[in-house]
Amino acid sequence: MKRNQKGFTLVEIMIVVAIIALLAAIAIPNLLRAKISSNDALAKSTLRTLSTSSETFATTNNGNYPDEMADLVGATPPYLNTDYCDETVSGYEYTCTMAAGSYTFAATPSLVGTSGTTTYTITTGGIVSW
What we know:
By secondary structure, the chain is α+β, with helices and mostly antiparallel strands.
């Protein structure tokens, strides 16, 4: 056998792989929690946007709230640029109930614990609940 052989032994490679696996085991759960947290924040923000646009609509229309999303999206200029109703955005499914005197918007996680943690609801007057 030659004594000047270059390269890594199997044990050295296994130690490096074990260290990488340990670092991944520490980092991945934190990244997943951060993603869920950002999805939750985005859902609350989106509901506030929907509420604000509905309240603004009511202010300019003698206290009458929009009957449908087309009233908000189709206005010139639009009160809202995107129709979130019956859509899934960043792991949350949005549902909208609108009438001339009130509204209720809800954001429900597609997979509880994976895409989000809680169902958020906002009602007439901007009252958020979960």
